[in-house]
Design brief:
Helices cover 43% and strands 15% of the residues. It is α/β, with parallel strands linked by helices and 250 residues long. The protein has a single domain, classed as Aldolase class I (TIM Barrel, Alpha-Beta Barrel), CATH 3.20.20.70. The chain has an eight-stranded parallel beta barrel, surrounded by five helices. α1 packs parallel to α12 and α5 packs across α7. The longest helix has 19 residues. It is globular. The two termini are 18 Å apart. Bound molecules: phosphoenolpyruvate (PEP). Phosphoenolpyruvate binds next to β8.
Amino acid sequence: MRKPLMAGNWKMFKTPEQTTAFFEKFLPLVEKSAHCEILVCAPFVDLPAAVIAAAGSSVGVGGQNLHWSTGDGAFTGEVSGPMLKAVGCRSVIIGHSERRQFFGETDATVLQRTKAALASGLQPVVCVGEMLADREAGKTNLVLETQLRGGVFSLTPEEFTAVVIAYEPVWAIGTGKTATPEIAADAHKFIREQIRAHYGDAAASSTRILYGGSVKPDNVKSLMAQPDIDGALVGGASLDPISFASIVNF
Ligand code: PEP
């Protein structure tokens, strides 16, 4: 059985003070939520406040990106996996579409970052997803296959066991246009088939595939009812403790 993972992506929102205030309201609302794993991926500067606030709870904290070097180095503006680990992170988002669109992320750098996360003991949440033009051109599966092949499928089977995949159709992110449960289900099924083809049945049935793209309290239930959807990666609706808690408690 795959335990659902409900993850928040705060993007570039909140100060440390706002982070502490979020957890004060959020934790009591999810203290009995043992049905799923809960993760909050905060901006780098908020991570210490998030880790302190979440201490003693089951809520994990993650970063939103990491550098592909696991050592120290002259990489101005970057943060490494060992640094995220040292501050108390459990996980890290890799290859989010906003990084692909605005910061030159490619499948090759996704792979390097994923390897760095694994070497640092962090759970990588690797994002894949098609643009609207890809979908309209009937290329959704081709895009997903290419991103998976370039971004994760050269990991060893052992490395791959720690990976979480997030399917995030780019046209649904921050737009209020959620994929219908059927569209999401088809993409998740395809991703699971790809995992099966590369890593076999056991990996296909144990890998968690999250859906992301305008997940809200009122649509999460129908998405989570799909057999291949194992959780959600939630942007905007994870910023408010009440709305994220109601998504967690779908
Ligand atoms: C995201 O940031 O990964 C995301 C899915 O955003 P939103 O929920 O706001 O669409």
